[in-house]
Amino acid sequence: MFVTFEGIEGCGKTTQIERFAETLKRQGIPLITTFEPGGTRIGNDIRRILLDARNEDLTPLTELILYAADRAQHIEEVIKPALDRGEWVICDRFVDATLVYQGTARSQDVRLIQILNERSTLGISPDMTFLLDCPVEIGLERAMKRNEALSDEGQDRFERETLDFHNKVRKGYLDLANEHKERIVIIDASLSMDAMEKEIFKHIEPHLRRI
């Protein structure tokens, strides 16, 4: 089972992934958690470039290609081997993020993004995606506090984007969810962490009963 979590900056993905993974482990399910960009040694180097706030001159096409390179390495080194071993893979961001951030918000050619995604994923796609949705202002406030707490201000290139950019990202995600209702589940990320956790688990329970 391949499960991805998506959403705007500060929507609470990291916390929910940790809780989700712990719940599955208590059920005896073998799994790995991973993330994009990053998740591999090479991917972490790419991540630093992509998130570095000093890289204001990074072009949208360069950004897109770097994400594709990160994903190709991630699939070959982490995701495909884990799925082949019969493990669940829980991933923080995947192809939907590229369609939304680089496509909807950066106006890159959607067909090019689809081609890069097809080649980099080897045809692997999520079985279920949880979209944690909340107003942009709430997400950005959370993200800024998180970065301050982690002393990670230098790795906040996306948080520094305009409100218009982040609103485009949110709209892009909601449009994708509307197009892929069979896969993408919208979770109200303005709820408490406990309430979000319960809502997420409610949607995964039917899959656990089949194991």
Walkthrough of the structure:
- By secondary structure, the chain is of the alpha/beta class.
- It is built from eight helices and five strands, in the order βαβααβααβααβα.
- Strands 2-3-1-4-5 form a five-stranded parallel β-sheet, with helices on both faces.
- It starts with a strand and ends with a helix.
- The model has no long low-confidence stretch (mean pLDDT 93).
Provide a quick synopsis of the model.
The protein is an alpha/beta fold and 211 residues long.
Key traits:
211 residues, alpha/beta, five-stranded parallel β-sheet, 57% helix
For the biggest β-sheet, the strand order reads 2-3-1-4-5
Share of helix among residues? 55-70%
Q: Write down the secondary-structure element order.
A: EHEHHEHHEHHEH
* Overall pLDDT: 93
Write the layout of secondary structure elements.
Blueprint: E1 2-7, H1 13-26, E2 31-35, H2 41-51, H3 60-84, E3 88-92, H4 95-105, H5 110-121, E4 128-133, H6 136-149, H7 163-179, E5 184-188, H8 193-209
Parallel strand pairs: 1-3, 1-4, 2-3, 4-5
Helix pairs in contact: 1-8, 2-3, 3-5, 4-5, 4-7
